[in-house]
Amino acid sequence: MTQWIDACATDEIDEEDLVRFDHDGRTFAIYHSPDGEFFCTDGLCTHEQVHLEDGLVMEYEIECPKHNATFDYRTGEAKRAPACVNLNTYRTKVENGRVLIEV
């Protein structure tokens, strides 16, 4: 059964940046896109399970801080090696200045 989880305030994430959110033994990354939308993916790179929180966010991509793999955070698609497995993505919504994710 899925549920909506309150992850963070919208003003906690600068545009073209992300925050890490840990919940129930899992790590997520929540992104603020240049057009003002919010997105959520798994928080660990699929290549070597490195936290993405220190990665570089540019436009609609996150670059892993360890081996520079990139992903489109809107779809989770692995865009550059060494990652070849996509990130899981999660629906988001904004209510009362808070970002909620569906897990």
What does this structure look like?
There is one protein chain. 0% of the residues lie in helices and 47% in strands. The protein is mostly beta strands. It has one domain (4-102): Rieske Iron-sulfur Protein (3-layer Sandwich), CATH 2.102.10.10. It is globular, with a radius of gyration of 13 Å. The model has no long low-confidence stretch (mean pLDDT 96).
Describe how the helices and strands are arranged.
Elements: E1 4-9, E2 17-23, E3 26-32, E4 38-42, E5 56-58, E6 61-63, E7 70-72, E8 78-80, E9 89-90, E10 92-95, E11 98-102
Antiparallel strand pairs: 1-11, 2-3, 3-4, 4-9, 5-6, 6-7, 7-8, 10-11
Sequence stretches where pLDDT stays below 50 over 5 or more residues: none
The CATH superfamily bears the name Rieske [2Fe-2S] iron-sulphur domain
> Biggest sheet: strands side by side, in what order?
2-3-4-9
The number of distinct structural domains comes to 1
Overall mean pLDDT: 96
Q: Give, in order, the helices and strands.
A: EEEEEEEEEEE
Number of strand segments:
11
Q: Report the CATH architecture.
A: 3-layer Sandwich
Largest sheet composition? 4 strands, antiparallel
CATH topology: Rieske Iron-sulfur Protein
Helix/strand structural class: mainly beta
Distance between the termini: 8 Å
What fraction of the residues are assigned to beta strands by DSSP? over 45%
Can you count the helices?
Answer: 0
**What gross morphology would you assign?**
globular
GO molecular function, one term: metal ion binding
Domain Rieske: 5-101
Keywords: 2Fe-2S, Iron, Iron-sulfur, Metal-binding
Protein name: Rieske family ferredoxin
